[in-house]
Amino acid sequence: GRETRLRVVLRVRPLTCTETRRGDRQVVRSLGDGTIHVSAARHDATFGFSAVFDAGASQEAVFEGSGMRQLVELALDGFSCTVFAFGQTGSGKTYTLMGPLAQSKTQPASPALLGLMQRSFACLLEQSRNRGSDLALSASYLEIYNEQVRDLLSPGPPCTLPLRWSKTRGFYVENQLSVDFESLEAIASLLLQGSQRRRTSAHALNRHSSRSHALLTVHVRSRAVSIASPPPTRVPQPSACPSKQGTLCFVDLAGSERVKETGSSGELSVEANNINRSLLALGHCISLLAKPRGKRTHIPYRDSKLTRLLARSLGGSGITLMVACISPSSRCLSETLSTLHYASRARRVTTRP
């Protein structure tokens, strides 16, 4: 119930082979203790975050150091938890969340390369077994493509679903398919199934650019458990403990992109404009939420489908972890600074879990 700040961590990907061959300079440097320094012509700035993971950080180090394990435990306790990755296109968001793109049922990724999602699934199942509680787990997976919400788990071509509002649930997706699972293999299969149906395209900056925002939500329901009846001399107690319902939502945001840099045209250009528009709406909401509660004006969550679905995570009763991903390349300096300022504002946002 007390105010809790959004936890924001930063990940810096290595320079790519193309950037190295081109002679790009590395303009960001980790100073330790959650601090990063940007040094380039006319730019000299330092930013602080809850944690900074440089190019040499392993996937396991990011999982343990970001606080992801604690987020899983809070979801089991009935809280609404969200983690989302954001940054420029090609900055490593999908890799951080999911690991290598070239993985399938026949060619699984190396365990060392698995991302936050698979590690969280394993932690969730392990914790639920250790607690010995009667848990029911299910997952839903959707994408927001050109301002349309599409189910990634329903049979057949991804179908467009309506986004509704209710006083009790807030914004929600109507008729979204939710699939029960009990094993790591089952949830990993759902993740791969949905990811392969997500819209991606190639452009000048990224051969596998996500053209949509994707949200995978794990629903954790603890069934009511009967307890022993108290002695007659005491005040009668309820015959069952109330059930808890927690969620763990992973949001892989499409990357911001400058059409001039990516060389996008036609359909790619339309997609880029929709992506940038929704990210701008998200940034506007974050800027307003970063103000003290007494000075906040109306938060325009209705400006995009993305902000509607993230309303509870950002300014409501949820617990949120943000992973900002950046490139160290001098050529990406403008987008890197934009991401760092964006992430710094988000650190001031508070919720009441």
TrEMBL record:
<protein>
    <recommendedName>
        <fullName>Kinesin-like protein</fullName>
    </recommendedName>
</protein>
<dbReference type="InterPro" id="IPR001752">
    <property type="entry name" value="Kinesin_motor_dom"/>
</dbReference>
<keyword id="KW-0067">ATP-binding</keyword>
<feature type="domain" description="Kinesin motor">
    <location>
        <begin position="5"/>
        <end position="349"/>
    </location>
</feature>
<dbReference type="GO" id="GO:0003777">
    <property type="term" value="F:microtubule motor activity"/>
</dbReference>
<dbReference type="Pfam" id="PF00225">
    <property type="entry name" value="Kinesin"/>
</dbReference>
<keyword id="KW-0493">Microtubule</keyword>
<comment type="similarity">
    <text>Belongs to the TRAFAC class myosin-kinesin ATPase superfamily. Kinesin family.</text>
</comment>
<keyword id="KW-0963">Cytoplasm</keyword>
<dbReference type="GO" id="GO:0005524">
    <property type="term" value="F:ATP binding"/>
</dbReference>
<keyword id="KW-0206">Cytoskeleton</keyword>
<dbReference type="GO" id="GO:0007018">
    <property type="term" value="P:microtubule-based movement"/>
</dbReference>
<dbReference type="InterPro" id="IPR019821">
    <property type="entry name" value="Kinesin_motor_CS"/>
</dbReference>
<dbReference type="GO" id="GO:0007052">
    <property type="term" value="P:mitotic spindle organization"/>
</dbReference>
<dbReference type="GO" id="GO:0008017">
    <property type="term" value="F:microtubule binding"/>
</dbReference>
<keyword id="KW-0505">Motor protein</keyword>
<dbReference type="InterPro" id="IPR027640">
    <property type="entry name" value="Kinesin-like_fam"/>
</dbReference>
<dbReference type="GO" id="GO:0005874">
    <property type="term" value="C:microtubule"/>
</dbReference>
<keyword id="KW-0547">Nucleotide-binding</keyword>
<dbReference type="GO" id="GO:0051231">
    <property type="term" value="P:spindle elongation"/>
</dbReference>
<dbReference type="InterPro" id="IPR036961">
    <property type="entry name" value="Kinesin_motor_dom_sf"/>
</dbReference>
<dbReference type="GO" id="GO:0005875">
    <property type="term" value="C:microtubule associated complex"/>
</dbReference>
<feature type="binding site">
    <location>
        <begin position="87"/>
        <end position="94"/>
    </location>
    <ligand>
        <name>ATP</name>
    </ligand>
</feature>
<dbReference type="InterPro" id="IPR027417">
    <property type="entry name" value="P-loop_NTPase"/>
</dbReference>
